[in-house]
Design brief:
With about 325 residues, the protein is an alpha+beta fold. It folds into two domains: about 5-60 and about 160-325, Aminopeptidase; about 65-150, Elongation Factor Tu (Ef-tu), domain 3 (Beta Barrel). It contains eight helices and 19 strands. Helix 4 crosses helix 8 (about 315-325) and helix 5 crosses helix 7 (about 280-290). The longest helix is centred in the middle third of the chain and has 15 residues, at about 165-180. This is M42 family peptidase.
């Protein structure tokens, strides 16, 4: 399990290189072939028993920001890469660019805001400790990424940290490769780019592989916050992997969905059905691009797309158990 290490690596959409190199180093000696395509997707192949292709994917990128301007007072204007509510980022530590310059996100103090003045990315800035534009330009440049600062911590059966969406999925794929399973299908483990900015990497990746079936591994919102009624809970921590029947833009293949449920029940693996359809995944892009029947299986997590996500390690372990059984069986 590589959750803590992967969480702490900066890998905002479009800047996944450090994540990709970490993963490649871990798996390169355990696969039959490995390559990086023109977009930056990392594709690792392991031979199976039959000449049918399974693509199992997770996205490497995380939500974050990009520097859009350097102000005269040395502060940085930023714009989001991916879906982030600006209210959750105020006062949070970030790192900027390849030099990982430390900064803090700030905005107009709440007590000075008038009426229902809205927090937006137009009026928040990153403070990197400079007071002049020229001083800031010596450290960063327009177009640099801005990532939440590393903060991963393990607390017994819990882990918190940034970017668990979808470094949880990446860690699972690494573990599945290292387990050296007796794979049924010729299996392509795809670590894809830019999911958070519009599912950009998975389509070309699937077009290259041309899989017969696909499984997307995600880290999904749980919604089991104390203030939420049960009816609003998409899934809950501690209740096992989340099998998705449908989400925005795609109804998951019914055969794959039923097969995953059957494997979980036959092996007494706790699981849950995702109860809301908000949000989308690479499964939609793969299905649209190649006509491939696809399924999403996820680890539930609180507070995704924020500086600190929370994940239950038992959910991770049970997701691994379910996937390790699915990959050695004939599905379609």
């Amino acid at each position: 399990m590589f959750l803590k290490e992967l969480s702490d690596i900066p890998g905002v959409s479009g800047f996944e290189g450090k994540v990709r190199e970490f993963i490649k180093e871990k798996i390169k000696d355990k696969v039959d072939q490995i390559e990086v395509d023109k977009l930056g997707n990392l594709i690792a192949f392991k031979k199976g028993k039959v000449n049918k292709k399974l693509m199992i994917s997770a996205h490497m990128d995380e939500v974050g920001f990009i520097v859009s301007n350097i102000e005269e007072d040395g502060k940085l204007s930023i714009l989001p890469l991916g879906s982030i509510d600006p209210r959750v980022v105020l006062g949070k530590k970030v790192v900027v660019g390849e030099k990982q310059i430390l900064g803090v996100i700030g905005s107009k103090p709440i007590h000075l805001m008038e009426g229902y003045e809205k927090v937006s990315f137009e009026n928040i800035k990153v403070d990197i400790g400079t007071t002049k534009k020229q001083e800031a330009e010596a450290k960063v440049k327009i177009g640099d990424f801005v990532s939440f600062a590393p903060n991963a911590m393990v607390h017994g059966e819990w882990i918190s940290g940034k970017a668990l969406d979808d470094r949880g999925g990446c860690s699972l794929l690494i573990d599945l490769i290292l387990e050296d399973l007796d794979l049924y299908y010729d299996t392509f483990f795809a670590f894809v780019i830019q999911e958070e900015t519009g599912l950009r990497g998975s389509g070309p990746c699937a077009f290259k592989i041309k899989p017969d079936l696909a499984i997307v591994i995600e880290t999904t919102t749980s919604g089991d916050n104390p203030e939420f009624p049960e009816a609003r809970r998409s899934s809950e921590l501690g209740k096992g992997p989340v099998i998705t029947p449908a989400h925005r833009g795609y109804v998951n293949d019914e055969r794959l969905f039923n097969f995953a449920v059957k494997v979980a029940e036959e092996n007494k693996i706790p699981y849950q059905i995702k109860r809301r359809t908000a949000g989308g995944t690479d499964a939609a892009r793969i299905a649209i691009t190649t006509g491939t029947p696809s399924l999403v299986i996820s680890i539930p997590s609180r507070y995704i797309h924020s500086p600190i996500c929370v994940l239950n390690i038992n959910d991770y372990r049970n997701t691994f158990k379910l996937l390790s059984l699915i990959l050695i069986k004939e599905v379609l």
